[in-house]
Amino acid sequence: MELQINCMQSLYRKMEMSQRKNKGYFSIMSNETETSLNSLAQEKVQRGFSIHDAYSIMKSSGTKFSVGNLATVSENLDKRVDTERYSIESTSEIAGYWQIYDKTLNQTFVLNPDTTTLQTDTNTNKNYIVFQNVFGEPENVMYADNELVGALKQFLNTDSIPTTSLNENYVIDINKFTGIESLKVKGNEGAGSWNLICNQEQKEKLQELANLYKEKYPNLVKTDGMAMGFADAEVAGQAVRTENGIMLIACNGLNYMDNVDPSKSWHIMYSINDTDMYKKIMNAMTEGYIIGKDIENVSKWEKYFEEKELSYERILSDEELELLQMNKI
Prior knowledge:
Layout: E1 2-4, H1 11-14, E2 17-19, E3 26-28, H2 40-46, H3 51-60, E4 80-82, E5 86-90, E6 98-102, E7 107-111, E8 116-121, E9 126-132, E10 138-144, H4 146-156, E11 163-165, E12 170-174, E13 181-185, E14 194-196, H5 200-216, H6 224-235, E15 239-241, E16 245-250, E17 253-258, E18 266-269, H7 277-286, H8 298-307, E19 313-315, H9 318-328
Parallel strand pairs: 1-19, 8-11
Antiparallel strand pairs: 2-3, 4-5, 5-6, 6-7, 8-9, 9-10, 12-13, 13-14, 15-16, 16-17, 17-18, 18-19
Helix pairs in contact: 5-6
């Protein structure tokens, strides 16, 4: 274990509360927020090879990015298909892209047909539209009911759409409070999730969860936007409610915020490259190592990390730093 006592920003400052409307990554922010979590794609860009570069190279070579992608059954599409719930059309925002508008949920799903496939979960027979980036990572995911599949067939002017089994690297969890499915990438669950709201009932349950956050933690959750951000994060498996506060689980750390006594808040950081940490943290709670009020106790987490020989850094609060300095004098 390493003890971090310099002026490094806390995990809370590094997390931004907003659900990217057409992406599945969730993070949390407050008025202090300055930066957001880095995605794997961003890391690749920083290494000098951008998504645009990869797309341009592959597009110019005529490569179809995904086996059975929607582009293989499409022609020059210049039409709009409307059903009771959905509308599908080419988007003028990005050449070659399509957009699906869900009238019930008031959400728009934008996709590149070259890298988008219709995937079926063989365990449930549910269909999902999966838009991947050029690195093969999920960029956007949408649940596809029978009406949407039918609308796609009409849009593509075909009787059948090629489907593949759900990628074996994906796992779908169901949030107990809302019933909303959340798709994650195995082995990298902490990096982000795609919440798949299917109907109006689930949307209302999500709002109910957001209201709960605002009512239970008024000192932490001051706006409707923050409340919805925390609710989204919980569905994604990245926020845990406790008796007195909220714990956030990110790809690079844990952050507990106490609603009553800010001095009881704490921050622990670990390497963003340790992609198993999310699973180990969740196991600590689901397997009974740390439950109930102990979730709020940083010493319980430190003990757990040390017993499991996990590398981490404790980020001291301003109050702890001041006390440490006083003890040195």
